[in-house]
Write a structure and sequence with these properties.
Length: 499
């Protein structure tokens, strides 16, 4: 019942911890999902505003094109007016009032009028540009731009964009440049880049590492996998694409709960280890106190029994009976000695482990059920090891009783002593009911027992004596349900000279 309650407690604790972890991950995931949706909505609204502004820029460019055509028409009319004036015959009844008034009304378009490659007039040309060489350079620049109108009789008109139009064009260029910069920079703390129409070149980028920008195609492909690109049509530039990533805050939020759980788990593990160490230390003190008190309590009746044996001997009681009684008293003294050594550093002495095991098992065999067959063998003969007889005898006694209980008083118990890899090993093999893998993992835990009335201290005490007091090891070598179990105890070897 105690083991079952302990298992239920572990299951409940595990279920509670799993629920806490799942709730933490779900809540953080929900927050991250909500934040991602908010960022997407912000980017969508921002992109819609960008697209509308791009359309506005496009409409402005159309207006500029219309102004450019109007100025071309004005230049054509001006050239026609000069032609009429040139062709007019002296004294002919031609009204040139409208024509001259049209020419004089032009105050914005720079115009150069040539007759057979000879400058006839310059209109709206800055005074600082009216030297012969400067006018020739201005004519060549106009011709290079295609701003030339040729008439009959060798009349040629060169014109340029108006001063007002050039000022507006400069403002327009600044607006487009500012618009592109704002498109990339003003993106609500979200990494954004502007790519060309083929999605192979990055034109502008913000909030990206230089390492990421070095792999252009890879970065663009990753961004397209995260969010669909947004088309952006600009005048004189064609189509551009806006690509964006998740914000740094959102990425950090995805990893924050995992890091938080790791920190909390590490702290809980440290706290559990600390409290477990304190609990084990307290249990050890209680165990040592109980052991020493038990040894003290056994001392008085043991001394009295030894005195009574001498009284019986003096009264002529059969000596064989007294010898057996003396052996039991020796065993009681050994038990008392064992309890008295708990909590203190035992003295190890080098000796023949084979002889000690044989002697101890001979004593235990006479006090175990006759249906249990004992067999003690050694593949090495004499085996020298350092051990404490009182404590190691306790190990043999507990392993023997545990095997007899597993066989339910019927079966065979075999102990095999040998050496390998610099250690002495003792295999304790029984033909009992065996153990499952779960039981094998817990068989040495304090308090674990498969018996209805067991305390679960025998094998735990055996492991402590072997590992802490003798520097050895004890393991379940093999076990199979229904086919028995084999425990292996290993101790360091010593040379015969030391013994």
């Amino acid at each position: 019942m105690r083991i079952r309650n302990k298992q239920y407690s572990r299951i409940l604790l595990l279920a509670g911890a799993t629920a806490i972890v799942a709730l933490t991950l779900w809540s953080s995931g929900h927050i991250a999902h909500t934040l991602r949706q908010e960022e997407q909505r912000k980017v969508e609204l921002w992109s819609e505003a960008i697209v509308q502004r791009a359309q506005l820029v496009g409409y402005t460019e159309e207006l500029f094109a219309s102004l450019r055509n109007e100025e071309r028409d004005k230049a054509d009319l001006m050239g026609e007016a000069y032609r009429i004036i040139q062709e007019a015959e002296p004294g002919a009844p031609i009204d040139l009032t409208f024509i001259t008034r049209f020419i004089q009304a032009n105050r914005t378009i720079p115009v150069l009028v040539y007759k057979d490659s000879v400058l006839q007039a310059d209109i709206n040309v800055a005074p600082s540009m009216r030297s012969a060489s400067q006018l020739d350079s201005l004519r060549d620049a106009m011709a290079a731009r295609g701003s030339v109108i040729e008439f009959d009789q060798g009349l040629t008109l060169f014109y340029d964009q108006s001063n007002r139009f050039r000022d507006l064009q400069t403002v327009m260029d600044d607006i487009i440049h500012s618009f592109i910069s704002e498109t990339v920079l003003n993106s609500a703390s979200i990494p954004v880049l502007l790519a060309d129409s083929s999605l192979t070149k990055i034109l502008r980028a913000d909030r990206f590492d230089q390492v990421d920008l070095s792999d252009t195609l890879g970065l663009i492909a990753n961004l397209m996998a995260v969010n669909p690109p947004i088309a952006l049509d600009l005048p004189d530039a064609g189509r551009r694409w806006i690509l964006y990533d998740e914000s740094i805050v959102l990425k950090q939020l995805r990893f924050f709960p995992v890091i938080q759980l790791l920190i909390i788990g590490g702290f809980l593990l440290l706290a559990y280890s600390t409290f477990s160490a304190f609990r084990r230390s307290e249990q050890n003190r209680v165990w040592v106190g109980m052991a020493k008190e038990t040894a003290h309590q056994l001392g008085t009746p043991l001394s009295a029994l030894m005195a009574w044996v001498e009284v019986l001997r003096s009264e002529g009681v059969d000596e064989s009976v007294l010898q057996e009684l003396g052996k039991d008293l020796d065993r009681l003294r050994t038990v008392t000695d064992r309890f008295s050594k708990i909590g203190s550093e035992p003295e190890l002495s080098s000796g023949d482990l084979w002889a000690f095991v044989s002697e101890t098992m001979a004593y235990l065999e006479r006090r175990m059920p006759r249906a249990v067959e004992f067999d003690v063998v050694s593949s090495e003969g004499v085996v020298w090891a350092a051990f404490n007889p009182a404590l190691f005898g306790w190990v043999l006694e507990n392993l023997t009783k545990n095997a007899v209980d597993a066989m339910e008083g019927v079966g065979s118990l075999k102990m095999t002593l040998g050496t390998e890899s610099g250690v002495a090993y003792l295999d304790v093999q029984d033909t009992g009911r065996g153990m499952s893998r779960r039981v094998q993992r817990q068989v040495f835990d304090p308090g674990f027992s498969t018996k209805a009335r067991g305390w679960g201290l025998g094998l735990s005490l055996v492991r402590r004596i072997v590992r802490e007091y003798h520097g050895g090891q004890i393991v379940v070598l093999r076990s199979e349900e229904g086919a028995g179990t084999t425990f292996r105890v290993t101790l360091p070897l010593v040379s015969a000279e030391v013994g």
